[in-house]
Write a structure and sequence with these properties.
This protein is an alpha+beta fold. 35% of the residues lie in helices and 13% in strands. Helix 5 packs antiparallel against helix 6.
């Protein structure tokens, strides 16, 4: 005949065992959240710059399945996989703007469009494109513009809808602030970064190292920016009479990182702060 007391004791031990594992699980989960908060950063302790369409960072880490489609489809190989030392970000996509920025070469934000889990969300870009087409319909009907014009305007507006970070200027090292010009190639002859220079080829990216500049006042960040008006060079007239210019980053900055990539100072004088908004940038 079964010993009821023995069965009860066995059930009690099993309950305590399962409860113990539950406590361990909760503790591990809590540690995981802390790990997300403190370690999804690069070697310099900074948050990673994610591709266009990125959702909230914590949600992104759960939504990204590390399939690599965004990396494969990027025409200029701007998207990389995070290394093991980047915490739970390991194998998730990010952009090292100093080495290779996003210059919108694909024109259609293919990285977001191809993402199967909406960790990179294409919907807002699609909606922007549709809204642009609707707004321009009266001009199409009036024969003022054609379908090709609508497409170009829609693409431009879709790019402006991107927000992955915001550019911050270091006035202490910026050449323009010092009233200095720049002559030569921005990053040296060995630099491998590329950019689509529309005055050279609208369809093919060129090596930055092959471009030679001679600017009386350095404005490389301004002339390279793919978003019109996102960076403007503002002339200043200090009391001592020595004119200087300050790159002013406007609300339309998308955080693409082209300015950081082409900045000719040894350590970029303009850098992208991932996830930073225009309002937040005012307090930096």
């Amino acid at each position: 005949m079964p010993d009821k007391n023995s069965d009860k004791e066995k059930s009690r031990r099993e309950f305590l065992k399962q409860s113990g594992w539950a406590v361990v699980g909760i503790a591990v989960a809590g540690t995981g959240l802390l790990f997300i908060d403190k370690n999804n950063k690069n070697g310099a302790g900074q948050l990673l710059l994610r591709p266009p369409g990125v959702i909230n960072e914590e949600d992104f880490l759960y939504a990204c399945i590390k399939c690599g489609l965004c990396i494969q489809i990027c025409p200029i190989h701007a998207i990389k996989l995070a290394d093991a030392d980047m915490g739970l970000s390991i194998d998730t996509p990010y952009i090292d703007a100093r080495q290779q920025a996003c210059d919108f070469s694909c024109d259609s934000l293919q990285c977001a469009e191809t993402c199967p889990t909406a960790a990179l969300d294409f919907i807002k870009f699609k909606e922007t494109g549709v809204e642009t087409a609707i707004e321009l319909q009266p001009k199409i009907d009036a024969g003022e513009i054609d379908g090709g014009d609508v497409f170009k305007i829609a693409i431009a507006n879709m790019k402006k809808a991107v927000h992955i970070g915001f550019a911050i200027v270091n006035e202490k090292s910026c050449l323009a602030v010092q009233g200095k010009g720049f002559k030569g190639t921005p990053r040296g002859s060995e630099f491998k970064g590329v950019l689509r220079y529309r005055d050279i080829s609208a369809s093919k990216a060129q090596l930055v190292s092959e471009q030679i500049f001679d600017r009386e006042v350095c404005d490389l960040c301004v002339i390279h920016c793919p978003i019109e008006g996102a960076i403007q060079l503002k002339e200043q007239s200090p009391a001592n009479g020595n004119k200087k210019w300050i790159p002013e980053v406007t609300e339309t900055c998308t955080g693409c990182g082209v300015c950081e990539m082409v900045c000719p100072t040894e350590h970029a004088s303009i850098v992208i702060k991932p996830g930073l908004s225009y309002e937040e940038a005012k307090n930096v």
